[in-house]
Amino acid sequence: MEKQGLRVGLTGGLGSGKSTVGRMFADLGVAVIDADEVGRRLMQPGQPVYDAIVQQFGSGVVREDGSLDRRALAQLAFQRGRVEELNHIVHPAVVAAQEQWMGDLFAADPRQIAMIESALIFEAGRSGFVAGWRDRFDRIILVTAPEEVKVRRYVERSHDGDPEALAADARKRLAAQIPDADKIAHCDWVIDNSGDIKVTGAAVAKIYAALRAEAAELATL
């Protein structure tokens, strides 16, 4: 069976700048799907994921208009130690949606690069909720930055709230993620996004060239 397309995972912890790097790849022509956006869509009223979350976490995570109160849900998940419960509901559904997206993409263009942008690629495998998680990807890219830089970025982009409380929240979220140091050996490329954005852009361009060549070669097999 002919192998079509190149499957790439783009990951990085909270505040690493993963989304910025994802936009750079998209600007170069890579098809990028954001796992967070997929998750938000699946968590809308009427979706099975929404129903499962309300059943598991209760009506306290539902706003008056029927939508999920994501802040209240995050507090339960990260402040009350219920992250795994939430991941058990969300991860399999998000992965299934990503697989469908990649299949449709490659059917239309076997030379395409499909990039899954997700902070929790490794965490999904550790949890056991996603079987064969590493086999989903031909290549994995890690975007990294020092923890204090990540925390600062999180605080800066959170436009309201006490900075100290936000920083504490950021550290709890980071603590729930696998450290970058443990991921590096399993990644094909690591992008240090702690400094000049032009340096990050140059790294993206170099990796894109390698991905483009590999995708073209795969399409001829």
UniProtKB/TrEMBL annotation:
Gene3D superfamilies: P-loop containing nucleotide triphosphate hydrolases. The keyword Lyase does not apply. PROSITE patterns: DPCK. It is found in: Cytoplasm. ATP binds at G15, S16, G17, K18, S19, T20. It holds the Pfam family CoaE. It catalyses: 3'-dephospho-CoA + ATP = ADP + CoA + H(+). Pathway: Cofactor biosynthesis; coenzyme A biosynthesis; CoA from (R)-pantothenate: step 5/5. InterPro entries: Depp_CoAkinase, P-loop_NTPase. The keyword Transmembrane helix does not apply. GO terms for biological process: coenzyme A biosynthetic process. Belongs to the CoaE family. This is Dephospho-CoA kinase.
